[in-house]
Amino acid sequence: MNAPFKPAGNRDPFAAYICDETSLDVLRPVAIELGWQPEKCNKGGLRNAIQSLSVSASPNILMVDLSESGDPLNDINALAEVCEPGTVVVAIGQVNDVRLYRDLLASGIHDYLLKPLSASAVRDALNQAQAVFAAPKSNDPDSAKHHISTAIIGTRGGVGASTLATSLAWMFGDKHNLPTALLDLDIHFGTGALALDLEPGRGLTDAIDNPSRIDGLFIERAMIRANDNLAILSAEAPINAPLMTDGAAFLQLEEEFRQAFSMTVIDMPRNMLINFPHLLSDVNVVVVTTEMTLAAARDTIRILSWLKTNAMHAIPIVVANKVQSGAGEISKADFEASIERDIDFVMPYDIKAATNAAKLGQTFAEANSGSKATAVLRQIADRIIGAGDGEGDSEPAKKSLLGSFDIKSLLAKKDKGASEAAHAE
User: Fold this and answer.
1) C-alpha to C-alpha distances, 61 to 54, 66, 91, 126, 200, nearest whole angstrom
2) Could you identify which of 180, 218, 232, 307 might form a hypothetical disulfide with 172, taking C-beta atoms 3.0 to 4.6 angstroms apart as the criterion?
3) CA 425, CA 416: separation in Å to the nearest integer?
């Protein structure tokens, strides 16, 4: 809950109070997977939790069921009175109401999941709760300086990850008035500076060649200013000069960004994720940018799986870009079923807006403030800021009506269709 942090002492790592057996059947295997005792998944909802915790220590992470509560907000306040400071609370319920969701977050709840529960949604919520509980806490305002680091990763080349990265960075600086650093890690072919109508300079290549030089003064001199609140570090290295680094320079840059800026946006090509996985060690949010194709669905699955294993502290956000109504290779429902989670945001395809931005030498968001795609970008920016604050600003994800639907089924469907077309000819 929203109370000053204090050491956990001998508190249990986890406890849950759930109203129905169906939800318990989903929760128990996930709890075991995370190393918790299944006996800590108790039958009974929020009122049972209040009664139990009034006479015993509250756990580090608490999951409570609001389904049988007639006044969830009032009952949550009663729960806060018996919860020890530092407890991270995940609520579940069956009321799909954005206002209730926001009110619950404002009251100190970390997350709210809709029934029926899915194992993947429960696992993600509890992993994030663990990361929140384990994060350093301090009453010293200097050491508690707020910073959000976001990595933008494209599942395929050309899906528009760099367009998202530059637009989000510009929005953080211009619309939210947050000092923002944009780090374009496509060393040879990056377009971050180009999208801002800037020369990339030699700052990033100098940093890679001389990591020991990286400090606050280096950052101040090497970064190219787009405006008062946005600076970029990028490169246009010769294509006959391979990247020779162990990644130490990138980690040092991230550390300096945390001291000098409120926001860091990293445009991260897939090969950098593979070669330097430690780059995500201090990233708060990962925006996985994709398109509605079979290849992109396959690689979205692979990247999300990699994030669960290697960066479970980071909050993943899936964005489908360049979406044309009725023109996708696979449907949104099939795509979501194959990746076993919802797409968080859908950005419509708008070639005229993209062309306009290129002609003006501006980011997509700056050049097209009234477009539908920019409206979605604003929502993504709000979600990232909310995620960094431990809050959310959107409706809880709904479970796909299709249930389990894997990528092999999609591929088989496509092959069958191609075969039938060939016979028809």
Assistant:
1) 16, 16, 11, 8, 45
2) 180
3) 15
Return the exposure string of 287-317: e unless at least 16 CB atoms fall within 10 Å of the residue's CB, then b: bbbbbbbbebbbbbbebbebbeeebbbbbbb
**In the numeric block, which tokens belong to residue 388?**
């960094």
- β-sheet with 41-43: strand ranges across: 41-43, 14-18, 61-65, 88-93, 111-114
CA distances from 149 to 176, 281, 387 (A): 15, 10, 11
Average pLDDT, the chain: 84
Asked if pLDDT for residue 5 goes beyond 80, the answer is no
- At 180, list the tokens: 């923002």
- Measure Cα distances from 12 to 44, 59, 154 in Å: 18, 5, 39
The winner for highest mean pLDDT among 2-16, 99-113, 136-150, 176-190 is 176-190
Distance CA 232, CA 224 (A): 5
Spatial distance between the Cα atoms of 137 and 76, rounded to a whole number of angstroms: 23
- On the CB side of 223, CA atoms within 13 Å amount to 28
Nearest C-alpha neighbor of 173 from the set 244, 254, 230: 230
Looking up tokens 């980690």, which residue turns up? 251
The DSSP code sequence of 244-292 is ---SHHHHHHHHHHHHH-SEEEEE--HHHHHH-GGGGTT-SEEEEEE-S
Domains present along the chain, CATH in parentheses = 14-134 (3.40.50.2300), 148-389 (3.40.50.300)
Model confidence band, residue 77 (pLDDT cutoffs 50, 70, 90): confident
| Residue whose structure tokens are 């806490």 | 137
Contact 321, 351 (CB under 8 A): no
Model confidence at 396, in pLDDT bands (50, 70, 90)?
A: very low
Half-sphere exposure of 136 (CA within 13 A, CB side): 11
Sorted by sequence, the CB contacts under 8 Å of residue 220 that are 6+ apart come out as: 260
**What pLDDT is recorded for position 400?**
33
Indicate the helix (H) or strand (E) that contains 43.
strand 41-43
The pLDDT, as a whole number, for residue 425 is 46
**Alpha carbon distances (Å) from 393 to 62, 292, 294:** 22, 25, 30
Strand pairing of 224-227 and 230-233?
A: antiparallel
Residue found by looking up tokens 């409570």 in the block: 64
